[in-house]
UniProtKB/TrEMBL annotation:
It comes from the Bacteria. Residues 190-284 form the 3-hydroxyacyl-CoA dehydrogenase C-terminal domain. It comes from Brevibacterium yomogidense. Residues 8-186 form the 3-hydroxyacyl-CoA dehydrogenase NAD binding domain. This is 3-hydroxybutyryl-CoA dehydrogenase. Pathway: Lipid metabolism; butanoate metabolism.
Amino acid sequence: MTGSITRAAVVGGGYMGGGIAATIAGAGVPCVLIDIDAATSQRRVGELLAESRDWVDKGLLDAAEAEVVAENLIAGVSIDESLAGVGFIIEAVPEVLELKHSTLARVSAAAHPQAIIASNTSTLPIGTLAESVTGPERFLGCHWMNPSRLIPGVEIIPSDRTVESATATATDFHRQVGKRPTTISDVPAFIANRLQHALFAEALKLVDEGVATPEVVDEVSRNSFGYRLAAFGPFEVADMAGLDVYQACLQTESGAYGDRFASTPLLEERVDAGDLGLKSGNGITPLASHDPQRVSAIRNQYFRGLTALLDSIEGLEDLRSTPADSVPTTAKDDTSA
Ligand SMILES: NC(=O)c1ccc[n+]([C@@H]2O[C@H](COP(=O)([O-])OP(=O)(O)OC[C@H]3O[C@@H](n4cnc5c(N)ncnc54)[C@H](O)[C@@H]3O)[C@@H](O)[C@H]2O)c1
């Protein structure tokens, strides 16, 4: 279960799986897309190639990369007939437990015994899905984000039965196709969705309590803390703000909203030790030990660049209002899990 992958497959070539297959193909790795039947797989490949051409026209993709996608994206016939020579398989069928189980059972029976098998599930425990896999030691979660061709992060989720070499190969493979993989523990909703949905649940409460409209919650989120998150994670943000400041904020908030805002031993111990983040030279993350002036210079450069980028995106602000000629659409929202 080591060595570079020379052929991959994606089972379930829908919204996520299609983007995953196109990404892999665009990195020069032949990738077989397998949907419910050969005709559907063929249709999806056609749609993905058309999307690539459209992206070239819009300046989102190099013409050369679109050609690489076209050379390497292959329409499969079926799970049973199309996995020969495939070293890495990503399952991306709908989030229905029974369907995941039956698909993974078929995939693991048809795949080479050394092939790594991954599920792109958003929330289902990998340990549970592993029950239907023949050779569960080569099975793990690989949670890509939507839109899968553009978001760099992928959560790599070994179960307690996954061998280390499978995790290492999955990590190397995702780097090989241009992603930024992070290995995490197998807990419900993993890390990205747990954080994202904690924010969403709190946003729902704000609206439900009559504090703000959804539009106001979104505007405040975008224009304030949301601005930081592409460059700095929540712990780096806390180290910049001051851990004592965050401790005081959580005290007020837990008094008002209850235990979901409670501090934890990690924060209490750091503050008790006088490790308050950037201002004391020690905190939770390595960022706290850097020269504060250097950190602010880099941070300011990022914010300036982000403001310029946002200002340059044509039509973004128009999305905040409903067009007069609006028609109902079934298109999926790009901001979901
Ligand atoms: N949509 C998101 O934002 C998102 C983000 C991250 C992860 N995910 C996860 O990715 C997975 C797929 O989600 P999606 O949004 O791409 O769904 P989707 O409905 O767009 O695509 C699913 C595809 O699977 C195909 N399919 C169904 N049964 C099949 C079978 N037996 N064999 C082969 N193909 C089959 C369907 O025809 C369809 O093309 C889910 O587990 C979902 O939770 C989704």
